[in-house]
Automatic annotation (TrEMBL):
Family per record: Belongs to the aldehyde dehydrogenase family.
SUPFAM superfamilies, per database record: ALDH-like (SSF53720)
PANTHER family for the chain: SUCCINATE-SEMIALDEHYDE DEHYDROGENASE, MITOCHONDRIAL
GO molecular function, one term: succinate-semialdehyde dehydrogenase (NAD+) activity
Species in which this protein is naturally found: Chara braunii (Braun's stonewort)
Active site residues of this protein: 241
Annotated ranges, domain Aldehyde dehydrogenase: 148-326
Name assigned to this protein: Aldehyde dehydrogenase domain-containing protein
Record's keyword terms, sorted: Oxidoreductase
Biological processes per GO annotation: gamma-aminobutyric acid catabolic process
Length: 332
């Protein structure tokens, strides 16, 4: 483990987990292969994690299928109670969870704390909704890839589904910590499994398995297309959140100061690395000069750096490739 962990200073260091989760067992890779996760602010190696592939994913699917027979039979009130215990544990460890997000993602700690506040709201909402499920529930095992996965995981848990979760290899620690707190809260083994490492192998195992009834994915259009094609073979349901090209539009009657504030919030949230981040800014000619001047001043006031620095307002992009892409688009 790298020195970046010392900077993190967790109250509960056991939440920084470096293994995958199958059933109730934290596991390494079958062949011993690993991959490194870096702190994007310092490029220091945080830790080496097991590079899990098809064989480990297949075991995770079996564990999820076995747990489904247990989890689906619990009453709505029982599932709600376990989710509320999970919520309590997340709240108790919210500062550690925010530090883990900053460590792996680079965003300012204050922003990570705000993200965790939203996360606890999500858990609380679905813990309550677990008692009020209406309609048909068609999915059992749920596979999903997302930096912060609770918007998909919580409704699945509330409905009585089990899942295999594949977090991004760049930012796996927050998902692993949430899973550990889930085990402490009383989720039966296999309700939530986590595999990461060899993305194509993991994805193929999930797509090919008839036990997996639904897959969800957030990422590129190209990968989303292959997931939809693969899922067609077993008639899986899919939920895909893929690439976009979002405009930010400023009309001539807009409150320019408010528009600038809104653009800064939208464009620099999560260091600009979110699916709803504006790709284009369209400004009416009548307010263009004023808007441009005020926007330049607002951007100039941002401080980019290590998210653990209290004065930093914007963290780094997660990968060197992402940084180079930004430079290329700006002619650097």
């Amino acid at each position: 483990m790298g020195v970046g962990i010392k900077q993190c200073c967790l109250a509960d260091p056991s939440l920084l987990i470096t293994k995958g989760l199958i059933g109730a067992e934290w596991v390494g890779s079958d062949d011993g292969s690993t991959f490194q996760v870096e702190n994007p602010a310092t490029r220091e190696v945080i830790a080496e994690l097991p590079k899990l592939g098809s064989s480990e994913t297949e075991r995770a699917i079996v564990a999820a299928e076995k747990a489904f027979s247990v989890w689906k039979k619990k009453t709505a009130k029982e599932r709600s109670s376990i989710m509320k215990r999970w919520l309590d544990l997340v709240k108790e460890n919210v500062e550690d969870l925010a530090k883990i997000i900053t460590l792996e993602n680079g965003k300012p700690l204050a922003e990570a704390m705000g993200e965790m506040a939203f996360a606890t709201d999500i858990i609380e909402f679905y813990a309550e909704e677990a008692k009020r499920i209406e309609g048909d529930v068609s999915s059992s095992i749920f596979a999903e890839k997302k930096i912060l996965v609770l918007r998909q995981v919580c409704p699945a848990l509330a409905a009585g589904c089990t899942m295999v979760l594949k977090p991004a290899e760049l930012t796996p620690f927050s998902a692993l910590a949430l899973a550990e707190l889930g085990l402490r809260a009383g989720f039966p083994p296999g309700v939530l499994n986590i595999v990461m490492g060899d993305a194509p192998a993991v994805g193929k195992a999930l797509k090919d398995s008839p036990a997996v009834r639904k897959m969800a994915f957030t990422g590129s259009t190209a990968v989303g297309r292959t997931i939809m094609e693969g899922c067609a073979k077993t008639l899986k349901r899919v939920s895909l959140e893929l690439g976009g090209n979002a405009p930010f539009i400023v009309f001539d009657d807009a409150d320019v100061d408010l528009a600038v504030q809104g653009l800064i919030a939208a464009k620099f949230w999560n260091n600009g690395q979110v699916c709803i981040s504006p790709n284009r800014v369209l400004v009416h000619d009548g307010v263009y000069d004023t808007f441009s001047k005020k926007l330049a001043e607002a951007v100039g006031a941002l401080k980019v750096g290590n998210g653990f620095d209290k004065e930093v307002t914007t963290g780094p992009v997660i990968t060197v490739q992402g940084m180079q892409k930004v430079f290329a688009r700006n002619g650097c």
